[in-house]
Amino acid sequence: MATNKNARLRYEALDKCLSNFSRKYYIEDLQKACCDYLTKELSIDTTVSKRQVYSDLKEMEISPSMHAPIKAYQDGQRKYYRYSQEGFSIVDLTDDELTGLEATVNMLASFRGMPQFDWMTDIIRKLKKKYKVSESQRNILSFDSNVDLRGIERFKELFNYIVNEQPIRITYEPFGKEPFDAEIHPYFLKQYNNRWFLLGFNPEYKDISVFALDRIKKFESINVKFIADTIIEDPFDYFFDVIGTTIPNDGEVESVVLKFTPKRYQYVAAKPIHHTQKTDDKKHTVTIEVIPNRELEAIILGFGKDVEVLEPEHLRNEIIEIMKENCNNYGLLKNDCKSP
Question: Where are the beta strands (DSSP E) in 213-327?
Fold first, then answer.
């Protein structure tokens, strides 16, 4: 293979096109692909002539280091170019890269059995076949998941709609409410607490709407222009101030101070509730900067008697009211929340 950097980049661009069996690449398409790839990699506008592309194709065929099986297929008055062997590529991996790939393949294999990652099975098989990578028979990784979660079978199709920027219409049924239809321009899938959520732009509200996959009854693609994402963009930044997926419309970031029993404090200090968490080892308190939401309330209630909300006062009062209702459920209020 030529050592010239521009030539190497052109070969890489051509390799991507010739190995793509999902579309036809005519000489003009190959020329544009080379120009775009070089411009991107070199950060300067670069032009490549058709003559150069023809020369590169010939070099890829005859070079001892490539031996690319390139074939020209007649398509009417034109010809498109493609490898005659599906799965062929001139890109080779070093020994270190193969070692890394083997570890990655074994990690990806741990996802198998999870419905939303069934598509990885084909990828793993192709990687093993192409690079002769062995797969460990021992499962040494485990990912927390709920394989029986309703709606998880929709993950792959929704994922593809996001990738292809395809607007959809969904029928959604919240718990305890009537189903409704909504036009959604899907942007992002987020997992929280073993549930998957779809986030997308809702033209009716001109804002992001969040839908749990297990409450989506059906969905279909619709023929409208896709509205590009200008709201979420970076998911980490979008969810920076909250726990979970709920962002209250009028919510503001507040300092939430929680006091824990000495034993429980050790666990919370080791496993932060939120990335803004600050700890006080003497007072056994943690402080987080978040917009209070129902997910935060659920976490606090999950700590049971091991936690006390110190600030803000409105959140403390909300937790008190919920605990009173809980006592009432057990018939304990008449005894001042003491066992009968």
Answer: 216-221, 254-260, 278-280, 285-290, 307-311
Report the SS3 class of residue 310: strand
- What average pLDDT score do residues 169-178 get? 93
Alpha carbons 163 and 54: distance in angstroms, whole number:
33
pTM for this entry? 0.61
Question: What pLDDT is recorded for position 339?
Answer: 53
Q: Are 181 and 220 in contact (CB under 8 A)?
A: no
Residue 39: what are its φ and ψ, rounded to 5°?
-60, -40
What is the DSSP secondary structure assignment for residue 165, as one 8-state letter?
T
Strand 78-83 versus strand 70-75 pairing type: antiparallel
Phi, psi of 228 (to 5 degrees): -65, 150
Q: What is the pLDDT of residues 280-327, one digit of tens each?
A: 999 999 999 999 999 999 999 999 999 999 999 999 999 999 999 988
* Residues 6+ positions from 24 with CB-CB distance below 8 Å: 73, 75, 80, 82
Going by the DSSP 8-state scheme, the letter that residue 157 receives in this structure is: H
Note the pLDDT tens digit of each residue in 181-211.
999 999 999 988 888 899 999 999 999 999 9
Q: Which domains does the chain have, with CATH numbers?
A: 5-83 (1.10.10.10), 95-131 (no CATH), 152-238 (2.30.30), 254-335 (3.30.70)
Which residues are CB-contacts of 201 (< 8 A; sequence separation ≥ 6)? 184, 185, 187, 207, 208, 209, 227, 229, 231
Task: For residue 201, give Cα distances in angstroms to 165, 167, 240.
Answer: 12, 9, 19
Predicted confidence (pLDDT) per residue in 76-125, tens digit: 999 999 999 988 888 766 556 666 666 666 665 555 545 445 555 565 56
| Residue-wise burial string across 116-148, b where 16 or more C-beta atoms lie within 10 A, e elsewhere | bbeebeeebeebbeeeebeeeeeeeeeeebeee
CA distance 66 to 148: 47
What's the confidence (pLDDT) of residue 271?
94
Q: For residue 36, give every residue at least 6 positions away whose Cβ sits within 8 Å of its Cβ, in sequence order, or none.
A: 13
